[in-house]
Amino acid sequence: MLENKVGMIFGVANKRSIAWACAQATSENGAKLAFTYQGERLKENVEKLTSELPESLVVPCDVTNQAEVDAAFEAVEKKYGRLDFLIHSIAFAPREALEGEFVTTTREAFLTALEISAFSLTQLSLAAAPLMKDGGSIVTMSYYGAEKVVRNYNVMGVAKAALESSTRYLAEDLGKQNIRVNAISAGPLNTLSARGVKNMGAMFSHIGERAPLRRNVEAREVGNTALFLVSDMSSGITGETIYVDCGFNIIGI
Ligand code: 1JT
């Protein structure tokens, strides 16, 4: 499905990462992939995970460092000469911001969360667009806390609301170049980010009981939706947020 397509994947930390599920789904379908990692401590992880993938590339990219962002896209241009899709699966907020009350969010935590989790999509889209010579597809990851209050999600909910809105504005700007921009709103997954979040176990059982499918979503299901969104199968879809949450978001009381 993705033969002759080149993708760039941001946000692999380990084998449980949503970004890694996206990498597996897209590479199994013929895509060539470039990966970025944030910080030296993740370099070895990403290099080991991707070592089996033919014609892959691994480059550092901390989105708060514009020079690193520029260098990452230059490396992709040099190796492949083009880009067809980009998967944005990065978010950060200081741990203290994801507990207690939203009203106590500090200026610093707010700005950091919004910069890394929301602004980076616009930043990366601007850098990617010139390489997407035959059009392209950009996919980002959101969460239900963007739309409804999820206790403890706090400033990340505000960042995800900005991310989903950015998805729509970017879709409008880049549509002229046949570049589509969509978000996946994934149900909670047991990733490195989710680890250490208080009461995660209670949240998984809450969803497992109430979601229409009576279970939690699997990373592979999010990866398969990303595969659909970066493929030509979704050529008429842009600016959308697609829930991949076993139906949890449709339930009222
Ligand atoms: C971040 C973290 C972004 C955890 C995240 C996230 N997006 C989803 N999760 C999992 C999650 C977390 C909470 C939650 C529901 C799901 C942690 C590091 C920063 C970025 O609330 C009930 C808190």
Structure description:
This protein has helices at 18-28, 40-50, 66-80, 107-128, 154-175, 200-210, 219-230, and strands spanning 6-10, 32-37, 57-60, 85-88, 136-142, 179-186, 241-244. It has one domain: NAD(P)-binding Rossmann-like Domain (Rossmann fold), CATH 3.40.50.720. The chain has a seven-stranded parallel sheet, with helices on both faces. 43% of the residues are buried. The protein starts with 5 loop residues before the first strand and ends in a 9-residue tail after the last strand. The longest helix is centred in the middle third of the chain and has 22 residues, at 107-128. It is an alpha/beta fold and 253 residues long. The structure holds ligand 1JT. Ligand 1JT binds next to loops.
Q: Using DSSP, what is the number of strands? A: 7
What is the CATH C-level name?
Answer: Alpha Beta
Please work out how many helical segments DSSP would assign.
Answer: 7
Taken in chain order, the helices and strands follow as EHEHEHEHEHEHHE
- From the alpha-carbon coordinates, what is the Rg to the nearest angstrom? 17 Å
| CATH fold name | Rossmann fold
Secondary-structure topology with pairs:
Layout lengths: L5 E5 L7 H11 L3 E6 L2 H11 L6 E4 L5 H15 L4 E4 L18 H22 L7 E7 L11 H22 L3 E8 L13 H11 L8 H12 L10 E4 L9
Parallel strand pairs: 1-2, 1-4, 2-3, 4-5, 5-6, 6-7
Helix pairs in contact: 1-7, 4-5
What's this entry about, in short?
By secondary structure, this protein is of the alpha/beta class.
